Recover the amino acids of this structure.
């Protein structure tokens, strides 16, 4: 595998240095930054603006045992059940025990969570949760409200510098120690750092239908691999059962949150029949993989490319208040969800696997951490319990920051040398065609229901593409993204072929 994406002879135009560099301004990156010792200088780098991330789009909310009828132990049990026996129990304990304290911290930071009449946090319920424990803000705009609040505080902190519209190319290492990052922003730049936290989010852009935005091309995962850090559990991709169905695929599928089913929404087919009844004791609120497969089978049976989510039992007033984003977006497309069932189909949504870390977010390279969706802490096992991901961003983002803050700092930050890559050659590349090919292959061969022969064919295709790109001079961000996507695609299909049994979100029909 190629160590660096740049070619020989490229020069850095500027070198900056910080105690800590955080890649990503989603909830993991922002919350980690706010938990760093204020005496440490910190840069938050983000590929586009703060409003382009999975965090910004999160609707349902954040799960934590904060209501009187709930306990971390119940949350633990639900998380383990959803994870189908593959969770790291120690990591889940940390998540559920420390989660309520991080929600309390968000309240103190003035994240505008919705409150009940007594002024307590309102808690909703989603698939796989046996208690109401999802806190939410502005109804279904939890991610946006949380990011807005945290980003405003981070921007005002003297020790934090925001650098937007910058592309992380590679992580620089020196003798198994992270020494900085190589980035592109109007030229190549090196940013030297004592510690780096990778909070680069998901991989949805590898699929045709995904809820993830344009930035989700797996750059952080591929960069970590090139630096020698292993990825784990890459076969476990969560497909959300209810993306808003569109005839023509969109660059990002609009999500109809699980919370709609939590409020009593039912799944029906063309004939108005509830097909999830009897498939699982929790019917429509079964874990996401079970509902996604139930929908796929119903689509095959009916020959249709979607089913319907019916919440018409609720009034316009209730729905527009509880789900303002969903209500508004559907209305824009001519669907009044208080009157008409919503057409839905499964879409790629979340990556359970990622960069292997310990319980402090630390990877096997000293000074290199990973948190949030890009990381593999083991909390999700084979399937993520709804609304546990933002909690993971908070708990492990804070722990990484605390781990960094607890280290003694001495001496100046050493400047890494510009990497010496191997020689590459000029190639004619149609980047849009290659990205499309990756998406089509992954959506055909690495989707909700998998078969050995398909995965083998897909792996061959993506490997061929990856190998051809490895030797080319990559002159644009888009080309680098394409190689990153192919690198991650190979990991997903290899892991999926390697796991012969069906478990959690990984379902093999053979
Ligand atoms: C539509 C939708 C709804 C969701 N609803 C919920 C929910 O209700 N509850 C819940 O718990 N979870 C939900 N999730 C999942 C959750 O939002 C994410 O898992 C979580 O927010 C990920 O946060 P993050 O900080 O790890 O990554 P992100 O928020 O995705 O941020 C990634 C950051 O990395 C940066 N980045 C990536 N590559 C590069 C690069 N090469 N160079 C520089 N920067 C880079 C991006 O610019 C971005 O700032 C939802 C996800 C989606 C898509």
């Amino acid at each position: 595998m190629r160590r660096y994406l740049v070619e020989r002879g490229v020069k850095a135009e500027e070198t900056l240095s910080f105690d800590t560099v955080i890649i990503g301004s989603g909830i993991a990156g922002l919350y980690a930054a706010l938990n760093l010792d204020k005496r440490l200088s910190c840069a938050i780098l983000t590929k586009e603006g703060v409003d382009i991330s999975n965090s910004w789009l999160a609707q349902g909310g954040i799960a934590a045992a904060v209501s009187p009828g709930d306990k971390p132990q119940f949350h633990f049990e639900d998380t383990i059940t959803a994870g189908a026996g593959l969770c790291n129990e120690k990591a889940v304990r940390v998540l559920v025990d420390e989660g309520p304290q991080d929600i309390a911290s968000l309240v103190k930071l003035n994240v505008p969570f919705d409150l009940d009449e007594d002024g307590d946090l309102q808690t909703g319920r989603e698939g796989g949760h046996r208690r109401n424990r999802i806190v939410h803000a502005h109804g279904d705009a939890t991610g946006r409200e949380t990011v807005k609040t945290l980003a405003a505080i981070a921007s005002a902190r003297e020790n934090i510098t925001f650098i937007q519209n910058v592309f992380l190319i590679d992580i620089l290492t020196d003798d198994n120690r992270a020494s900085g990052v190589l980035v592109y922003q109007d030229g190549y730049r090196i940013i030297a750092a004592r510690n780096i936290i990778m909070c680069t989010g998901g991989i949805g852009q590898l699929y045709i239908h995904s809820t993830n935005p344009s930035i989700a091309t797996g750059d952080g995962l591929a960069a970590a691999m090139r630096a020698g850090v292993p990825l784990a559990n890459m076969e476990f991709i969560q497909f959300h059962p209810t993306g808003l169905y569109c005839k023509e695929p969109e660059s990002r599928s609009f999500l109809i949150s699980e919370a709609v089913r939590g409020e009593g929404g039912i799944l029906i087919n063309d004939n108005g029949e509830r097909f999830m009844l009897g498939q699982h004791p929790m019917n429509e609120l079964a874990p996401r993989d079970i509902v996604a497969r139930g929908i796929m089978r119903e689509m095959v049976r009916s020959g249709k490319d979607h089913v319907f989510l019916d919440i018409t039992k609720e009034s316009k007033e209730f729905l527009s208040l509880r789900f303002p984003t969903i209500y508004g977006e559907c209305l824009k497309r001519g669907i009044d969800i208080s009157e008409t069932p919503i057409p839905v189909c499964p879409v790629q949504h979340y990556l359970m696997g990622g960069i292997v870390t310990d319980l402090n977010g630390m990877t096997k390279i000293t000074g290199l951490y990973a948190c949030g969706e890009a990381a593999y802490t083991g909390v999700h096992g084979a399937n993520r319990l709804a609304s546990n991901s933002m909690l993971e961003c908070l708990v492990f983002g804070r722990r990484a920051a605390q781990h960094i803050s607890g280290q003694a700092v001495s001496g100046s930050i050493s400047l890494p040398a510009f990497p010496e890559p191997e020689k590459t050659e000029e190639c004619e590349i149609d980047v849009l065609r290659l990205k499309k090919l990756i998406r089509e292959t992954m959506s055909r061969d690495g989707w909700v229901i998998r078969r050995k022969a398909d995965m083998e064919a897909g792996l061959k295709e993506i490997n061929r593409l990856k190998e051809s790109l490895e030797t080319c001079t990559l002159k644009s961000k888009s080309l680098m993204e394409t190689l990153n996507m192919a690198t991650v695609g190979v990991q997903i299909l290899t892991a999926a072929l390697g796991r012969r049994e069906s478990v959690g979100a990984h379902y093999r029909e053979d």
Observations:
- The chain has three domains: 21-236+352-405, 243-347, 431-508.
